[in-house]
Write a structure and sequence with these properties.
By secondary structure, the chain is α/β, with parallel strands linked by helices. It contains eight helices and eleven strands. The strands form three sheets. Strands 2-1-3-4-5 form a five-stranded parallel sheet, with helices on both faces.
Length: 226
């Protein structure tokens, strides 16, 4: 059974999450304290961690950083009442795989959980490391290099590259990215995928204006060519 650790100090929120996730047949463990959450995450085996940002003992950012420093590969969804772009960026850069702002709908959270679990439970053995041009990707370690120098890819960018690599040569629609990488079940009109592709090109392409690897397919989406 899939095990989820919930680190959330609001009792009603924590109990509500546990009740609803257990109804969906997940096994849950809950704690209200950042220090205790870190201890549990390092001691026991979990498939996913739901981590509140504001916690007693140790805040969510620090818990996330320490887990990643310890080599933990357990995916993390960070919950927060903060809405600023800088907070979201900091959360993702600390190692979180996704970031949801309170209040959120249960259906949205479930969709994000299922998308992350689908990636981590189905795909991790498919591609461990991959090289193209002067770029090397390690999907196990979330490390990337270009011309031997570290490449700063976010967890979301790694998952986009994983999808590109697994579907090499195929045209991927924006809708497929939103479903597989973002976990959306309903698809909003958004330039999110285009913006992330533009950032990826800036990082991996020698000439982002004339990309060799991430190719635009007019009116359809993008495809990856090694």
């Amino acid at each position: 059974m899939t095990r989820i650790l919930i680190i959330e100090d609001e009792p009603d929120m924590r109990r509500g999450l546990q009740d609803n996730l257990e109804f969906e047949e997940y096994e849950t463990v809950g704690t209200a304290n950042g220090n205790e959450g870190l201890r549990l995450a390092l001691k026991e085996s979990f498939d996913l961690i739901i981590l509140d940002l504001m916690l007693p003992g140790m805040d969510g950012m620090e818990v996330c950083r320490r887990l990643k420093e310890a080599g933990s590969r357990t995916p993390i969804i960070m919950l927060t009442a903060r809405e600023s772009e800088s907070d979201k960026v900091e959360g993702l850069e600390s190692g979180a795989d996704d970031y949801i702002t309170k209040p959120f709908s249960l259906q949205e959270l479930l969709a994000r959980i299922k998308a992350i679990l689908r990636r981590t439970q189905t795909h991790p053995s498919a591609v461990h490391e991959y090289s193209f041009g002067d770029v090397t990707l390690s999907f196990d370690k979330y490390e990337a290099y270009k011309a031997g120098k570290p490449l700063d890819l976010s967890p979301r960018e790694f998952e986009m590259m994983r999808l590109f690599v697994e579907r090499e040569g195929e045209t991927l629609s924006r809708e497929e990215f939103l479903k597989e990488v973002w976990g959306y079940t309903s698809l909003p009109q958004t330039r999110t995928v285009d913006n992330h592709v533009a950032k990826l090109r800036q990082k991996i392409e020698d000439d982002p204006d004339s990309p060799r690897h991430i190719i635009t397919v007019h009116r359809m989406g993008y495809k990856f060519i090694r």
